[in-house]
């Protein structure tokens, strides 16, 4: 967040959000969309409501590797799900936040792995490192006009 | 469910993939980016790129090749070998590595692990540990096995995790390149000692060896010889693991 603030990118992102430009945050890029993160007790962009917490209930952290992404509600971005994608993180938003559109289970934890509300979206996994499943999400995002 | 990973390892020297037994007697095994693409197509869950040439020129060549690999492969890439300070980590992540592994430099200066984890996050900092059996204990060795440290490998693993390592890549130097199977007792001790993912490395001769070590509970198995020599494909290994009810992609 410090880098986003000091470079002016935070304001640019808020401005494009006000103009409903489709935005996809990836990994920590999803996390900064929310109000707050417990990682370094950080105030984030506040484009989506909720807080980022360290994952509770996983046997080993970081959550590193390929895991299932299951659709929670219908959304243009999640039409190709379920899929298996690559994750690398220890913090996440839980599956019960209002913007969750797909979820992932890690032992006893369930996290939101795709979020979307209005023109703001995020993927907790890395589409650029998730082979065909990742390309599918990116293609859906590129074709998306920011609507439900 | 989180899948177990199969990670082909590319030992890269002078810009070429090489393979030796216990890090000596190196043989040329081709061009690294081509090998990376081939393994990704076979279903590799991740690739490990280990730079084994020292020096500034080799480092520049490494960054160029990693940048090329990073844009052409679509699975995660871990890069290590000769990483001695935080700018090295930053350069590799900037070039397109997803994770960076640190070995001897972390043993020499454990604070380096914390510096890198604080700046870049634990999820991309792998501490690589080369272990050699001495009686009933495993000792961490440095500089590709050429330098003894007197440090108990399991104690060092615990300290590395406390300092911020997000994953451990642990090689049994007694097994490496010998194709005699993984050192299962080493990984049992590590799994009990730390709560980060562990990658087992060194000794795989068959898909069954890989399934054996994954069954213990390690998150990933790394292998080089059996893939480079074309003895087994990644897909064959995953097939054996699936037959033994291991969760694979």
Number of strand elements of chain B: 12
Low-confidence stretches of chain B: none
How many strand units of chain A? 10
Q: Summarize model confidence as the mean pLDDT of chain A.
A: 97
CATH topology of chain B: TIM Barrel
Strand order in the largest sheet of chain A: 1-10-9-8-5-6
Strand content of chain A: 25-35%
Question: What pattern of helices and strands is seen along the backbone of chain A?
Answer: HHEHEEEEEEEEEH
Secondary structure category of chain B: alpha/beta
DSSP helical segment count of chain A: 4
Strand order of the largest sheet of chain B: 1-4-5-6-7-10-11-12
The oligomeric state is heterodimer
Most extensive contact: A-B, 27 and 26 residues
Distance between the termini of chain B: 10 Å
Stated plainly, the CATH topology of chain A is called Rossmann fold
Low-confidence stretches of chain A: none
* CATH C-level name of chain B: Alpha Beta
Number of domains of chain B: 1
Distance between the termini of chain A: 28 Å
Helix content of chain B: 25-40%
CATH architecture of chain A: 3-Layer(aba) Sandwich
Provide a quick synopsis of the model.
The complex is a heterodimer of chains A (148) and B (249). Chain A starts with a helix and ends in a 6-residue tail after the last helix.
Give an account of the 3D structure.
The complex is a heterodimer of chains A (148) and B (249). The two termini of chain A are 28 Å apart. Chain A has four helices and ten strands, in the order ααβαβββββββββα. In chain A, strand 2 and strand 3 (42-43) form a beta hairpin. Chain A is 22% helix and 34% strand. Chain A has helices spanning 2-7, 9-18, 28-31, 131-142, and strands at 23-26, 36-37, 42-43, 51-54, 63-71, 83-89, 91-92, 100-106, 109-117, 120-123. Chain A is of the alpha+beta class and 148 residues long. Chain B has a single domain, classed as Aldolase class I (TIM Barrel, Alpha-Beta Barrel). In chain B, helix 8 links the parallel strand 11 (198-201) and strand 12. The radius of gyration of chain B is 16 Å and the shape is globular. Chain B starts with a strand and ends in a 6-residue tail after the last helix. At the A-B interface, strand 5, strand 6 and helix 4 of A face loops of B.
